[in-house]
Design brief:
- The protein is of the alpha/beta class.
- The chain has one domain: Rossmann fold, CATH 3.40.50.150.
- 35% of the residues lie in helices and 25% in strands.
- It contains eight helices and eight strands.
- The protein has helices spanning 3-12, 14-22, 38-47, 58-66, 103-113, 127-134, 159-168, 189-192, and strands at residues 28-32, 50-55, 71-73, 88-94, 114-122, 171-180, 183-184, 195-202.
- Strands 3-2-1-4-5-8-6-7 form an eight-stranded mixed sheet, sandwiched between helices.
- Strand 1 (28-32), helix 3 and strand 2 (50-55) form a beta-alpha-beta unit.
- Helix 1 crosses helix 2 (14-22).
Length: 204
């Protein structure tokens, strides 16, 4: 990957850079719902990671191969039975959490297969989303680009929702990064942040 491509990806997907900061060089990773493999390719170039992507789309599988990413075709909602316990240092779910149907089961599987999990997702509690709903419309934005009738998203949530889920399911949050664009949001993050990234592990 050329240096310009790395900068472009970091600008287009600020969660990529946030995820990269948490992953040690040479770590093993599994990227669930990896799309065209851009995140794995970014991490290979910037952190020297080793690992695989999991994707169901035929077109994205072709793109992963073109990106030099090892990819397995599978439906995430069918689980991760093909992977042994603690096979990876990190299991990632980038901008895919909201499109999973069996979310609780998948998070638990992430923590079986990996020592730690990382997720990023659009924050439905972001003030612009709240304003859209208040005005009587489902939000459409760069983080939520679909119309209500063609969206793959089935489980949208807020930061508070996700953290309540973690508490209820014995998931220990280790770090959180909340952003709007490339700007990190620390003040009123559930209201002012459009994207959230979490690093977590199984609770004790």
């Amino acid at each position: 990957m050329k240096q310009n491509d790395i900068y472009r990806l970091a600008a287009e997907r600020p969660d990529f850079a946030a995820i990269a900061e948490w992953i040690p060089k040479g770590a093993t990773v599994l990227d669930l719902g990896c799309g065209d493999g851009s995140l794995l390719r970014y991490l290979k170039e910037t952190r020297g990671v080793r690992g695989y992507g999991v994707e169901i789309s035929d077109l994205d599988i072709v793109s992963c191969i073109a990106n030099g990413v090892n990819v397995i075709q599978n439906d995430l909602d069918s689980g991760l039975a093909d992977f042994e316990d603690n096979s990876f240092d990190f299991v990632m779910l980038s901008q895919t959490l909201q499109a999973t149907r069996h979310t609780a089961e998948l998070i638990q599987e992430m923590l079986r297969v990996g020592r730690q999990g990382i997720v990023s997702f659009p924050n439905f509690g972001y003030w612009k989303n709240r304003l859209n709903v208040l005005m009587g419309n489902m939000p459409v934005s760069s983080e939520l680009p679909y119309q209500w009738y063609d969206t793959p998203n089935v489980h949208l949530c807020t930061l508070d929702d996700f953290e309540s889920f973690c508490t209820a399911h014995n998931v220990a949050v280790l770090e959180r990064r909340v952003m709007t664009g490339e700007r990190v949001v620390n003040l009123l993050p559930n209201l002012l942040g459009s994207t959230a990234v979490y690093r977590f592990q199984r609770g004790i």
